[in-house]
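Summary for the funding panel

The consortium committed to producing paired sequence-structure records for every protein in the target list. Below we show the first two records in order, beginning with the earlier of the two.
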Amino acid sequence: PGKTKEEKLKSNYIKEQGKKILEQEVDKEIVLKEQVESALKESVKGKGLYVISPGTNETQEYITKEASKRGITSIRVTHPQEPPAGKKRPQVFDMMINQKDVVEGDKLVKKAIEDIISIETSTVGSTTLDPAKFNDYVRDSINRDARSVKNSDSVIDGISSSSSTTQFSRIPVQVGINLKKPTYVFDKKFSRWFKFSPESKQFEPLEAGETPLLKSQPAFFGGKSLDKVERTALKELFELKSKQAGLGPVVKKQVIENE
């Protein structure tokens, strides 16, 4: 009582409380890291598969649910402005994006946006992508997505068109292409998966019924909502991986990466 706000903030008590809070946060990070490392070792009978699921929309909730049902670890990545993550499930870990890597993410996003605008302008004469309209929340979300792609070994987009898309997920898809990661999109119009070809610089269709084989750490993207066709396409990815991991017979043809 009687002290100014500045004097209170400089008091030894406040400094000690601040130190305790920092120590608690560090302890939480250490425990989380240990839990994730342990879960990754156990994921899919020791196969080490885990999925990176940026954001908290319906697509990400469905991805983590399907992965959890099969004992596959999910890293649910968020940024500080996002609402709380969805339902707690076994093998699902929430990780807040590290702010010190924002600059690196911005570089990946900047290059991807430049490429998308260039491609769309040269092919259809205009672009619907206007980064000047992005608010801080959108910028943080795209930055989170770009860094998630960088830490993945493949990119899966469950709702995009193989020819063009107006969804924000086209930005992490382009980041994946730029980083030379195996990149897939599901085109509902054709009910088929497409894979980006570095040679033709286009998405080329897989055979009818052919499903991408998940690698060790794919990053998933999609829209705010999913319909039945999109859900089935994503579900089949996990069913195939479970069978490939020895949990049942492999029925569908597999696309094996030789990278």
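The next record, for a separate protein in the list, is shown here:
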Amino acid sequence: SEYNYYCYKKYKFKLKNRKNRINYGTDIVVCGLNRSGSTLAYNILNYILQKSYKPSLGFFSDEKAYIEELKQPKYSILRKTHDYSFILKNRIENKQTIGIFSHRHLLDVIASHVQKGWVSDIKDFVSQYGVEKLVYNSIIMAKIRGIIIISYEELLNEKEKIIQRIASQLELSLSAEQIQYIIYETSIEKTQENISILSFDKIGNDLVNKETGLHINHINDPDLNKWKKVLSENDVNLITGRKAYGYYNKFFGYV
């Protein structure tokens, strides 16, 4: 077998039996794989929320720190994470947190990882169950009851529709001018301009702007199907030959 990464049945058992005893106010967490459009969704949310008030921004990387922060009178209303969390799962399902999950064609996700330097050899990546890690981490987050699911493809090609959909979910109304402003401010051209003037801090192996979540080299090639330019035929065969790749496509509706 392909290791059945993350012992999926064990996860399902834990999800069913673990209870969340935290009951604080509502926040919003954008979830998704690295390079799946989560930062774009995060910044769209930031602009939508500014219509009513200026949100404080945060990152979800530690459950204990997250819970402690939610106890504060002025906790961060908007967060981003790439990591699955039982606490977060239960808060979303109990309608204490609004969860938004982004996904992207898996070959484009992996191609973007290659461009970022996170994956240097596809054969090694595949042999270390890299495909399975991405697939099951995505599916287990997307299966959270009540999470709002959006695709990178929609964020890129149907941004106005996505902005209206998210605003509606948050019970906020936006004027046509406000929507166009958000579209402009989160455009590739404007984002590239912003990156040139933002300040960055070392977080892990990357230089990241803490307010926007943008990396110093965030935009390499935002186009769809860029894997055709980045991955070799052998790379593609190694990835698509994994059963998990088929599970991902079926679950998210890719062909």
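Regarding this second record: Confidence is low (pLDDT under 50) at residues 5-24. DSSP finds 14 helices and seven strands in the chain.
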